[in-house]
Specification:
Blueprint (H helix, E strand, L loop, with lengths): L2 H6 L1 H10 L10 E3 L9 E13 L4 E13 L4 E13 L5 H23 L4 E5 L2 H6 L19 H21 L13 H23 L3 E5 L15 H5 L6 E3 L2 E2 L4 H5 L1 H8 L12 E6 L7 E5 L5 H9 L1 E2 L2 E2 H10 L3 H11 L6 H5 L1
Parallel strand pairs: 2-5, 5-6
Antiparallel strand pairs: 1-7, 2-3, 3-4, 6-10, 7-9, 8-9, 9-10, 11-12
């Protein structure tokens, strides 16, 4: 790298950074709080992970999901974990399908906790809005508008959703978080059924436990509070000193459509499957003055009592059950290499063949 060239641009780059430091009316949205009034609450939370090795004619993968329970004032305890290693066929859209498999496993982990543990809230590592986005990203995989006489995914949903739901609930009752297999289907239909399982599972959770699930993310690219700026909201709220939270925005509010049509479309997409998202709240939170700001999403309004309880199970401004889940579930490249050796797979991967 030519560092002399970089130094020649130093002044210009620094001026650009300084231009970002504009004044925002943050006090209009921010509520300062010390979160010193916890009551009693039982939290569960989890995370998922996947990794893979690509071979010439198949892909070896591992997927996992883990969850923990933390009662306010008590020690953390493991709830349930589930792992799967196999090869994936058909050999198409591998990364997207494995990511979907992982999310399905995370949702089943949450559903298992609601059915088997007496919990008040379940924490997801990430945004609940991203769960809604996943309901329509199947279009890049399974839909081909040039194909004639093909059933749409909505038709498949209307025909098979009851059967898929029954299988999901049966497996969870047996403590198995396995995928609902599409037997005797062609390759395209198998991929459609993977997406159908996600939609059925998500709607089941939203219907019965939607008010009890909370999304917590360290990042966010959305810009809804300060729409006059191109800076993400989380960057603006990061300028706030001290602890507190922002007043929530309801993303189902019709005014959001004027700000971001993609948000409006995403939230309303589930109507095509007979479910209406009445409200989904989007806000920011800082639990520790020395920590970063978190993006919080929920299907019900959260109050200071909730945040005070969340603060009690957090370390460094972040819920410990999510940190613990992330550390436990991570599947590294060396883990995959060991999986291959234990299975007796010594073929060279795609990358090694190319090299």
């Amino acid at each position: 790298m030519d560092f002399s060239y970089l130094l020649s641009k130093k002044h210009k780059i620094c001026k650009k950074i300084e231009s970002l430091n504009v004044d925002f009316d943050i006090d209009r949205y921010w509520v300062s709080q010390d979160f010193e009034n916890p009551s009693y609450c039982v939290f569960a939370g989890g995370d998922g992970s996947f990794n893979k090795i690509d071979y010439v004619d198949y892909c070896l993968y591992s997927v996992g999901a883990v969850s923990y329970i933390n009662k306010v004032g008590e020690k953390i305890e493991e709830s349930i974990s589930y792992w799967d290693t196999d090869i994936i066929l058909p050999y198409r859209y591998i990364s997207n399908r494995l990511r979907l498999y992982m999310i399905n496993m995370e949702l089943k982990t949450a559903l298992w906790n609601f059915k088997n543990k007496n919990i008040d809230y379940y924490l997801f590592d990430g945004s609940l809005y991203s769960l809604l986005i996943q309901t329509h990203t199947y279009g890049t995989i399974v839909e081909n508008k040039n194909e004639e006489n093909e059933k749409s995914i909505i038709d498949y949903y209307n025909e098979y959703s009851h059967e898929i739901k029954s299988r999901i609930l049966e497996n969870i009752h047996e403590n198995r978080l396995i995928p609902t297999l599409a037997l005797n289907k062609n390759d395209r239909e198998r991929i459609i059924f993977e997406q159908l399982e996600y939609i059925v599972l998500l709607i089941e959770i939203l219907k019965k436990y939607g008010k009890k699930i909370i999304g917590i993310s360290k990042t966010s690219k959305m810009n809804l509070y300060f729409k006059e700026s191109n800076i993400p909201d989380i960057a603006v709220f990061s300028k706030v000193n001290g602890t507190g939270y922002s007043k929530p925005l309801n993303l189902t509010d019709g005014r959001i459509k004027e700000i971001n049509r993609n948000v409006y479309y995403t939230i309303n997409h589930l109507k095509k499957f007979g479910y209406n998202v009445d409200e989904i709240y989007y806000q920011f939170l800082r639990l520790d003055s020395g920590a970063g700001v978190l993006n919080i999403t929920s299907f019900s309004k959260l109050n200071n009592d909730f945040f005070s309880n969340l603060n009690e199970i957090s370390i460094g401004g972040y819920p410990y059950i999510l940190k613990k889940s992330h550390e436990t579930v991570k599947i590294g490249d060396k883990d995959m290499e060991l999986c291959a050796k234990l299975l007796g797979i010594y073929n060279k991967s795609d990358r090694n063949l190319i090299l």
